[in-house]
Design a protein that fits this description.
495 residues; mainly alpha; Serine Threonine Protein Phosphatase 5, Tetratricopeptide repeat; two-stranded antiparallel ribbon; 19 helices; 6 strands; Starch-binding associating with outer membrane; signal
């Protein structure tokens, strides 16, 4: 049985066999063999390959269900003929099992990506670079990417294997078992602080879009928020304020491919529709199933996944320009076949943020995926200052509200401001894969999702009585059954 431990290893080595396009660097084939990593150009391709793996994480259909659809912002358009959608249904309705393919695939992909960063970090030190600053940059990028992906793992699964050295054979893949949550966070903090030291403030030309010092500081701030170290979080965010970011005047421009890597973009997953293998595909997964050529301009397939709920649609205040920039309604007689349309007067909602026609072909779009925006920094800073009482949080939340066309807030007590900034984060960052993490971090997941489940079961007759049975142990996803079987891990309690 122990020889089957290579479930992650083989995926990792396969990923190292090719390098995705990143910015203006052409793809190259390279090996994980020790003879490969000998010069700057080879490390550049390796780092670009690590970014390329992030592209895949965001364009396959298993990561966003575990970070957004599991929460109250989105659900799915049910089609009884599509039994392959059951895996998403289980996540959305809290009917998850340890054999769920989405859970297994997310686990595998995150560890595959971590293996790529481990190879870079394990082999870069002895290699001579003509420019030591470039060497530090590549190291910092790998540290940032590894920290980001362990941050996903620890929030989704709790204690996880902590692998920071290159896996060279199947026997050593998970030989150390699962590390504690504290140990994982210690490594994440070590990586992100190393990234802050090594990364530049900005790039020029074709390098724009790579991880920067501001991106690493924002990641550090969110980590400290998650650990409830609000003083340290505020310190990190305040450093980001001095790095030249600003809010765009028009909220919708953040998601328009014509304004990629703008002044508000702190870190985004880069996509290019001009290259078939590097295009994004979000609207093709999220658009209404029955829209097809009405939305995309030619016959094609739309997934009907991650569609906005009535809850998020109602959450926008009167006059908030972000609603129409974020959510559109599809009108068609065929909507009557889907009960999801009833709450929207016969329309089917879909995520407008990622809809920018025309498209070159089916499944091929040009949007970047926003991971961190400056508005997010401002709102987390406002939250941190409210928790510490060590500064005025209002300028930061009100800057975001002003851009949305809303009146400023003033004179709220700490509890009322806490609720206001949480609501603001939900609206501002809707459909950007932050909602589940926000509910976990603020301790609101059980309360919010229990109420959401009551509302969903009242409006959707297809839901069983077992749906949305929210229990504390379900705040962590189960360790994939395959890893339990092959590596002898203990399952998370309750599963």
């Amino acid at each position: 049985m122990k020889h089957q431990k290579y479930s992650i290893l083989l995926l990792s080595l396969f990923a190292l066999a090719s390098c995705h396009h990143m910015l203006d660097v052409e793809p190259h084939t390279f090996s994980s063999d020790a003879s490969y990593y000998q010069n700057e150009g080879q490390f550049l391709r390796a780092v670009n390959g690590a970014y390329g793996s992030l592209q895949e994480l965001y364009t396959v259909d298993h990561f966003w269900p575990m970070t957004e659809m599991v929460a109250d912002n989105t659900n799915y358009q049910f089609d009884a003929s599509d039994r392959g959608a059951q895996q998403r249904e289980e996540i959305d309705e809290f009917l998850i099992t340890s054999t769920n393919n989405y859970v297994n695939n997310t686990w595998n992909m995150l560890y595959r990506n971590i293996q790529q960063t481990n190879v870079i970090l394990g082999r870069i030190e002895p290699v001579e670079f003509s420019d030591e600053a470039k060497k530090a940059q590549y190291k910092g990028e790998a540290q940032f990417l590894r920290a980001l992906q362990y941050f996903h793992l620890v929030r989704l699964f709790g204690p996880v294997p902590l692998i920071i050295d290159e896996v060279e054979d199947p026997e050593s893949a998970f030989s150390e078992g699962r590390a504690s949550v504290e140990e994982v966070y210690n490594q994440i903090l070590a990586d992100v602080n190393g990234a802050i030291e090594n990364l530049p403030v900005s790039y020029t030309g074709s390098n724009i879009g790579r991880a920067t010092k501001g991106a690493a500081l924002t990641l550090l701030g969110e980590i400290q928020m998650t650990l409830h170290n609000f003083d340290e979080a505020a310190t990190a965010f305040q450093q980001v304020l001095d790095m030249g970011y600003s809010l765009l005047p028009n909220y919708a421009d953040n998601f328009n491919p014509a304004f990629k890597n703008n002044a508000e973009s702190v870190f985004a997953i880069q996509f290019d529709a001009g290259l078939q293998t590097e295009a994004s595909n979000f609207i093709f997964m999220f658009g209404p199933r029955n829209a097809k050529n009405q939305l995309i301009g030619f016959p094609g397939n739309l997934g009907g996944s991650n569609i906005p709920t009535p809850s998020i649609y109602r959450a926008y205040e009167e006059g908030d320009v972000r609603r129409d920039a974020s959510i559109a309604l599809f009108s068609d007689p065929s909507n009557a076949n889907f009960e999801e349309s009833r709450a929207f007067g016969g329309d089917i909602p879909f995520i407008q943020k990622y809809y920018h026609p025309p498209f070159l072909e089916d499944g091929r779009a040009d949007e970047n995926w926003p991971v961190y925006r400056y508005a997010h920094v401002l709102l987390m800073l406002a939250e941190a200052l409210n928790e510490t009482g060590a500064g005025d949080p209002y300028p930061y939340i009100n800057a975001v509200r002003e851009r949305a066309g809303l009146d400023p807030l003033a004179g709220l007590g700490q509890d009322a401001f806490r609720e206001a900034v949480a609501r603001e984060q939900r609206i501002e960052l809707a459909f950007e894969n932050h909602r589940w993490y926000q509910l976990l971090r603020t301790g609101k997941a059980i309360e919010v999702m229990t109420q959401h489940g009551i509302e969903e079961k009242e409006r959707l007759t297809r839901l069983s009585n077992a749906a949305y049975n929210i229990q504390p142990y379900k705040l962590l996803f189960p360790i994939p059954e395959r890893e339990i079987r092959l590596n002898g891990f203990e399952q998370n309690p309750g599963w």
